[in-house]
Amino acid sequence: QVQLVESGGGLVQAGGSLRLSCAASGRPVSSYARMGWFRQAPGKERDFVAAINWIGSSTRYADSVKGRFTISRDNGKNTLYLQMNSLKVEDTAVYYCAASTYYTGDVLSRYAYWGQGTQVTVSS
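The structure assignment produced for this chain is given below.
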């Protein structure tokens, strides 16, 4: 059974940093074509944040996080990461890890596997 478990969320002041982790079990992360992070703020839709291909050679970011967030994966540890720097109040959301068997397309419908989410709260 595939399971993705996020950790690393919390409360941080604006300008601070957090690193999210997503531990995968039941299937090696190297078998997923793409893995990504999405986020959902209260009352809003779930939005794309960042994605990485299966060998980590290609990444893609939402414009709102470019230059501040870095996605990476360690296939040996079966873990996906999201390093978040220079955090802003508007980054406050529940962050979800997801895995896809598609090699392209970072829309929700292409990600079949999801974690339960981890809360990130950025205070001013």
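Interim note for the steering committee: The radius of gyration is 13 Å. The CA atoms of residues 51 and 60 lie 5 Å apart.
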